[in-house]
Prior knowledge:
Helices cover 47% and strands 12% of the residues. The chain is an alpha+beta fold. It has a 5-stranded mixed beta sheet with strand order 1-5-2-4-3, sandwiched between helices.
Amino acid sequence: xxxxxxxxxxxxxxxxxxxxxxxxxxxxxxxxxxxxxxxxxxxxxxxxxxxxxxxxxxxxxxxxxxxxxxxxxxxxxxxxxxxxxxxxxxxxxxxxxxxxxxxxxxxxxxxxxxxxxxxxxxxxxxxxxxxxxxxxxxxxxxxxxxxxxxxxxxxxxxxxxxxxxxxxxxxxxxxxxxxxxxxxxxxxxxxxxxxxxxxxxxxxxxxxxxxxxxxxxxxxxxxxxxxxxxxxxxxxxxxxxxxxxxxxxxxxxxxxxxxxxxxxxxxxxxxxxxxxxxxxxxxxxxxxxxxxxxxxxxxxxxxxxxxxxxxxxxxxxxxxxx
Length: 322
């Protein structure tokens, strides 16, 4: 947090590594499609950029650019310390104070003030690239992690595509009983389908992605996907289906919070998105309190056509068929 030098030769070497990583990611259809969809869904907010950055920036940023960023953000005033495990609390706090108290505290990061305007119409992107498999993806603007709607959408996601990982922890449970699996995979329209909603400080995206089977088309998959989205917005889920969705989400929460490392990640993320640990401590209670009517309500408001960004990856040389 204080003593990195950013030697110019080291910067040049690492630049080559990161550019190579970026170019490797570009071999993935889902990376290419996801990047195009973020750029389409966001016009103002920095969430429109992939974390790894644009190739032009990677190529042109200077050593001084990097060092200034390091000094601005990598300081104790902008850091959260998390300790989890078998230790003496007073001794741990003393050691942390010994290590970090002498460092200049720096300034906390300022909030992003480039709020994304409301999306007022459906958007669509198509990526054509060499490949053998087509993909269909849907992204809709979603609430921040602290919003009650976030927990309703987590349950909705469990109904639609099966309880999924939280982005920063990964993982998931079987989704073979989910609505989209039955509608897309069991009908042999898609080889697989998944959904996801990440906990974020500013409103981000809820996404669904399906892998189109050979000899089927993106149009067929999109039609079936829209049918299920319209259904969950039109009809409240049954008590049995709601209970199953919550059970899956509860199991995933237990799985992702059982290890020491993941507990630390949960606590750190809770501090980042909410400023404390209450978000983590009340996460499960808020999830289990969601009603069928609330699931239908968030589906109607967040998945409506005017909030959607659709994306297709179409392999060159065909309509999605191998």
